[in-house]
Design goal:
The complex is a heterodimer of chains A (329) and B (296).
Chain A (H helix, E strand, L loop, with lengths): L5 E5 L3 H9 L4 E4 L17 H13 L3 E6 L9 H13 L3 E4 L2 H10 L5 E3 L8 H11 L3 E3 L6 H8 L5 E8 L11 H6 L15 E6 L2 E6 L2 E6 L15 E3 L2 E3 L7 E3 L4 H6 L4 E4 L6 H19 L18 E2 L9
Chain B lengths: L3 E4 L8 H14 L4 E4 L8 H17 L3 E5 L7 H13 L3 E4 L2 H6 L5 E3 L8 H10 L1 E5 L6 H10 L3 E14 L4 H5 L18 E5 L4 E6 L2 E9 L4 H7 L3 E4 L6 H12 L5 H11 L5 E2 L14
Parallel strand pairs in B: 1-2, 1-11, 2-3, 3-4, 4-5, 5-6, 6-7, 7-11, 10-12
Antiparallel strand pairs in B: 7-10, 8-9, 9-10
Helix pairs in contact in B: 1-2, 9-10
The chains are: A alpha/beta (329), B alpha/beta (296).
Chain lengths: 329, 296
C-alpha cells in the first residue's frame, strides 16, 4: 500500500484559490503579484492582504498554501525576492517554492522555520543535485523537471532523502525548466527573471488569404487554415520548418495528463501531484481539481482510473503523458 | 592586465577524427589561453571522441593551453551520472560543471561553473565561490547591468560568451531525431549531419533557431566585439568563443588582436563579417533587448 498522493493545485487569484479549496485540493500554490514568481501575468496573483485572506480560507478548510517565489533574483536588486520570502513566513504559508541558490540560502538563514521546496525551475533531475539542495538548504521536497520517465523517477526516489512532487495536468514545458531562454531570445522578457514565457504583450495575430497567422515578437509561430483551431503562440508549441518539412518540431499542442498513471506514480514513490494552471480561470480549476480529487481517491482504494475524463480541458483536445513514458523522448 | 580568451566546448557532433584534427590545429596554431573539451549536449555522443581525448588534451597542453573538462548540461540517468561521478578521481584537469549535481560533486575542489548553471545574482555567485568555484561562466541572457553588478561583488573570475550561437534550451527530447522521424534511442546520430546545427525556419521562411540534438541554439551568432571594451570596464576577465565549423583560429586571433589593441573593434567587425556567412550577428541580450536583436 502506497501513501495517498497529495494534490497541489493552482491559484492564480483569490477566486481560483477558493475554487481549488472547495473542489478538494490538499494544497494550493500561489504567488505575489510581481516578478518574484514564474506566472507573472497581468491581472494574476496576490497582493499581501489577498494572500493573507487566501491562507486563512485555505487553512479553515484544512488545505495548505505554498507560495511560489521561483524566479531568479536580479543582480543588484534582491530585495523584492527577499521581502517575498519574509512575507510568506509572516503570512503563515506552509512552504515556499524556490529555485535560486542565493534565495534558498537567504530563506534558510532568515526564515529557518519556513519549509522550503525546490521549484521545477531549478531543474534538479538527479540524486546529486537534489541531495545538494537538501544538504545545503534543508529542502524538504523537490518538484521534478518534466524530463524523467516514471522508471527514472522510481530510481531517483530510492536514492534521495526528500519528497518528490510531479506535474500531473496542464501545460507542459518540453525544455528543461529554468534552463530555457527561447522566450527571452524572441521577446527580451526572461522566464527566469521576469516570470513570463511567450507574454501576451508580444503576441500578434494577422489575417492573410483566409488564414490566421500567430506571431511572437518578430517571428511567425504558426499559420492556421480556417478549419484549424488556433492555439496561443507559446514558443515551443509553434509549427516550424526543418529539412523542408513543416511540423510541431518541439511538441504538438497538447496537455499533460497523468490520470492513467496515478498508481504507477504512487508506486514510484511520488508524494504529490501538481496541477499546472495559475493562468486559468476558476471554472477550469474547479473541474480539473474535482476530477483529480476523485481519481486520486479512487486510485487510493485500488480502483482503476480512466484517462479520458478531462479531454474537454486539454489544449487542442489532445493529451499526452509527456516524458513519463519513454516513447515521448 | 590581459584577459583570458577561451574556446568553449564544441557543442556539435562532428566526426571524431575531424574533431581531433580541429583541436590539434587549435593546440598548434591558435591564440586561445583556455580550451574547454568534453561533451555537453548528449551522453550518447561521448564514446565516439573518448579514444582521442587523452591525446587531444596533451597536445593542447603542449601548445600552452589551459584545458578544462566540460560536462553534461542535463543529467537524467544513473549511467550519465556515473560518468561524472568518476571524473574527479580520473582526471587532474579543472572540471566545468554544467549541472548543479556535478557542481555538488566538486565541492571543495577548484572547479568552473558553466553557463548552463543558473547564476543570476550575487547571492548565488558567493555561495558557489564558497563551494570551490574559481571561475563562473555566466548565462547568455544576462544584460550588462546584471553583469556589472555581479562583477562588482565577484571574488572569482567571471566569463562571458562573446561569440557563437547561444544555447537557449536543453531537453530530454532529441529534436534532431524527431525532425528525422526517429526516436532518441534509435537516433542514428543524425545530429552529425549539421556541423553548425540544423536550421529551423518559421512557416513564413524566417530564419529562427538551430537544433543540435537535445539542444536548441539561436540562429543568430552572438557577437560582442563592439561591447568588449564595456565588458572589460565592468570587470569581466574571461571571454568565451563558442566553436563553429569555420576558421576558429582566425576568429580567435581577431578577438585577441582587438583585446590587445593591435586592431580596432571596427576592423575586427569587418574580419568577423568576412568569416561568418551562415547567420547574422546578434547582441540583444547584452543590451537588455530580445536576444535575436542586433543593437548597433
Amino acid at each position: 500500500m502506497t501513501a495517498a498522493l497529495e494534490l497541489v493545485c493552482p491559484a492564480g487569484n483569490p477566486a481560483s484559490l477558493k475554487a481549488a479549496v472547495d473542489a478538494g485540493a490538499d494544497v494550493v500554490y500561489a504567488g505575489f503579484a510581481d516578478d518574484t514568481n514564474a506566472r507573472n501575468f497581468p491581472g494574476l496573483n496576490f497582493t499581501r492582504p489577498q494572500m493573507k485572506d487566501g491562507i486563512a480560507y485555505a487553512h479553515e478548510h484544512g488545505c495548505g498554501v505554498f507560495i511560489a517565489i521561483n524566479t531568479y533574483a536580479r543582480a543588484g536588486n534582491p530585495d523584492p525576492w527577499r521581502t517575498a520570502i519574509d512575507d510568506a513566513a509572516a503570512l503563515g504559508a506552509d512552504a515556499v517554492i524556490l529555485a535560486d541558490i542565493g534565495l534558498l540560502d537567504y530563506a534558510q538563514r532568515s526564515q529557518p522555520r519556513l519549509r522550503r521546496h525546490l521549484s521545477v525551475q531549478a531543474s534538479a533531475s538527479n540524486p546529486e543535485a537534489i541531495g545538494f539542495y537538501h544538504k545545503a538548504f534543508g529542502v524538504k521536497r523537490v518538484v521534478l523537471p518534466r524530463v524523467l520517465t516514471v522508471k527514472e523517477i522510481a530510481a531517483l526516489n530510492a536514492r534521495i532523502p526528500v519528497e518528490t512532487e510531479v506535474f500531473a495536468f496542464g501545460g507542459m514545458c518540453v525544455m528543461a525548466e529554468g534552463r530555457c531562454s527561447l522566450s527571452s531570445y524572441v521577446t527580451g522578457q526572461s522566464p527566469n527573471t521576469d516570470g513570463v514565457c511567450s507574454p501576451a504583450s508580444h503576441v500578434g495575430y494577422e489575417k492573410r488569404d483566409g488564414k490566421l497567422i500567430s506571431r511572437l515578437g518578430d517571428f511567425t509561430l504558426n499559420i492556421f487554415s480556417e478549419d484549424e483551431a488556433a492555439g496561443y503562440p507559446t514558443l515551443c508549441k509553434g509549427r516550424f520548418v526543418t529539412e523542408g518539412q513543416a511540423s510541431y518540431l518541439f511538441e504538438e499542442p497538447a496537455s499533460l495528463n497523468v490520470l492513467g498513471l496515478l498508481s504507477e506514480l504512487a508506486e514510484a514513490g511520488v508524494s504529490a501531484l501538481k496541477i499546472e494552471g495559475r493562468q486559468r480561470g476558476r471554472a477550469y480549476v474547479s473541474q480539473v481539481v474535482k476530477t483529480f480529487r476523485n481519481a486520486v481517491d479512487a486510485a487510493g482504494r485500488g480502483e482503476k482510473v480512466a484517462a479520458g475524463e478531462l479531454d474537454a480541458m486539454t489544449e487542442g483536445g489532445r493529451d499526452t503523458t509527456g516524458a513519463y513514458e519513454k516513447i515521448w523522448h | 592586465m590581459t584577459e583570458t580568451l577561451s574556446l568553449g566546448p564544441l557543442l556539435f557532433h562532428w566526426d571524431a577524427e575531424k574533431k581531433r584534427d580541429f583541436y590539434f590545429r587549435i593546440a598548434d596554431e591558435s591564440c586561445f589561453d583556455t580550451v574547454y573539451v568534453g561533451e555537453v549536449v548528449c551522453s550518447k555522443r561521448a564514446p565516439f571522441f573518448a579514444p582521442y581525448l587523452t591525446e587531444v588534451v596533451e597536445r593542447l597542453q603542449r601548445g600552452g593551453k589551459q584545458v578544462i573538462l566540460s560536462t553534461l548540461a542535463l543529467i537524467m540517468s544513473e549511467p550519465e551520472m556515473e560518468h561524472v561521478i568518476n571524473l574527479p578521481e580520473t582526471t587532474d584537469l579543472l572540471i566545468e560543471a554544467n549541472d548543479i549535481g556535478t557542481a555538488a560533486l566538486l565541492t571543495g575542489r577548484p572547479h568552473v561553473i558553466g553557463p548552463f548553471v543558473n547564476v543570476y545574482n550575487e547571492g548565488t555567485l558567493e555561495y558557489l565561490a564558497n563551494q570551490g568555484a574559481v571561475r563562473v561562466s555566466l548565462p547568455w541572457e544576462l544584460p550588462s547591468e546584471s553583469l556589472a553588478a555581479l562583477a562588482k561583488s565577484a571574488t572569482v573570475e567571471l566569463e562571458v560568451q562573446i561569440f557563437g550561437r547561444m544555447a537557449l534550451a536543453i531537453s530530454a527530447r532529441c529534436y534532431h531525431a524527431r525532425a528525422h522521424g526517429l526516436h532518441k534511442s534509435k537516433c542514428q546520430f543524425v545530429c552529425a549531419e549539421d556541423a553548425n546545427g540544423m536550421s529551423v525556419e518559421t512557416l513564413d521562411g524566417e530564419d529562427f533557431l538551430s537544433v543540435n540534438g537535445c539542444q536548441t541554439l539561436s540562429h543568430t551568432v552572438c557577437n560582442l566585439m563592439d561591447e568588449l571594451e564595456s565588458l572589460r570596464e565592468i570587470g569581466i576577465q574571461a571571454f568565451r568563443i563558442s566553436p563553429h565549423a569555420i576558421d576558429m583560429v582566425a576568429i580567435g586571433q581577431t578577438f585577441r588582436d582587438v583585446l590587445d589593441g593591435e586592431t580596432s573593434a571596427a576592423e575586427g567587425q569587418r574580419k568577423l563579417a568576412d568569416s561568418v556567412h551562415f547567420a547574422p550577428f546578434s547582441n540583444g541580450f547584452y543590451h537588455g533587448e530580445d536576444g535575436a536583436a542586433y543593437v548597433s
